Amino acid sequence: MPTIKANDNLIIAIGDSFTQGIGAYPLDVWKKHEGNPHFNVVGELYRDHQMENNWASQLSKNHLRNFKVINLAVNGVGNRGASKEIYLNEIPKTTGKVIVVFMISGLQRFDFLKQDYIGKDHMHWLTIWPIPNLHKGEPIEKVEEWYARYGHSEKTSVIETLTAIAEVENFSKARGFEFVFASAFDTLFNIQKMKEVLGSDSNLLNMVDWTNYIPVNFTADFLKKENGGDSLWGYSARLKMPSTYITPCNHWTIEGQRVVAEYIYKFLKENYALEL
Length: 276
Hints:
Layout: E1 9-14, H1 17-20, H2 27-32, H3 47-53, H4 55-62, E2 67-71, H5 79-88, E3 98-104, E4 110-113, E5 125-128, H6 141-151, H7 154-175, E6 178-183, H8 191-198, E7 213-217, H9 218-225, H10 232-237, H11 254-271
Parallel strand pairs: 1-2, 1-3, 3-6, 6-7
Antiparallel strand pairs: 4-5
């Protein structure tokens, strides 16, 4: 975390590996690991490149030059865990402007704090997916199997995500922070789709202030620009080296992160009375 002065302006970034900057490495790094696209799936390597090239850092470096960045992203986390990072990390007090940006992760993910939680550890969440054999042979396998059969549905995923957004929104509002959110990749995070999934409970969409929503799915937009089809994973699997926007490890390139930062900046400039 950078040194924050009493009057500094801040960008607080919340999200998963897309916000952490996984995959946003120079070409020489990718060439070194050619043929092994998921060489850094845990995200422990090349943290310097991740921190330098993620969208939050590029937002500060290229646009909001008088803002410092606090990046609370956690690789692999779901929205339940990501939203709680604002409580698990001390947010420095400042009289400057503070903008909180929540980059939505996969809606199906569900997070638990690790049993041996240590605050200084970066990876302190245990995240499950509704995929019974994803962690075959590991203790979490039975929990994931139960989640797939009985605990998960598109509807519960949408509701969990809405409450996570509302939690960060209320946290920000209570402190006088600006708040915006967007979707990194999950195609279910679409107002019309979520309304259909919620059915008679579609009124739950009202717990979120949608004027703060940046209405674009960045990954879907990149795939469209590259004629990559509808599947990020399918398209990435065909890549030996990064394309313009997408990496072989299913993430955004440095250029992709730059475009995301630029889009966020334009949204902030058009919708908020901030001295940017």
